[in-house]
Amino acid sequence: MNRIVVITGSTRGIGFSTAIEFLKGGDRVVIFCRHKEHAMKATSQLAGRGEGQNILGLVGDVRRERHVKRIVTRCLKYFGRIDILINNAGIAAYKGIEKITQKEWDDILDTNLKGCFLFMRHVIPLM
To answer: Which entry of 6, 10, 104, 125 is 20 to 30 Å from 86 by CA?
Structure first.
């Protein structure tokens, strides 16, 4: 209870459901994704459940280090610390390998691997 949880890729799907469970347990949660409309909708939905003071919704891209730094800084200013990091952000290409472009492959690796690395690099020292 009362932990500060940062969940990447948390405005839909598994990440959003995870945020709900942490909020139910009395924790405070930072949610975000790179799409502003998704972040606003998810934040509004969670705040509408009476969790407004316990939720911080942001926009940022796990692939961009300056975005990661900004999210971590905003979290620290709003909640004062980070106790749990859940690297949930991920994308996939739903087609055969021979049809995946190099740009699509780079986006998958940058989101699924580099994003985890960047968040761990900036959050672990704070824990």
So the answer is: 104
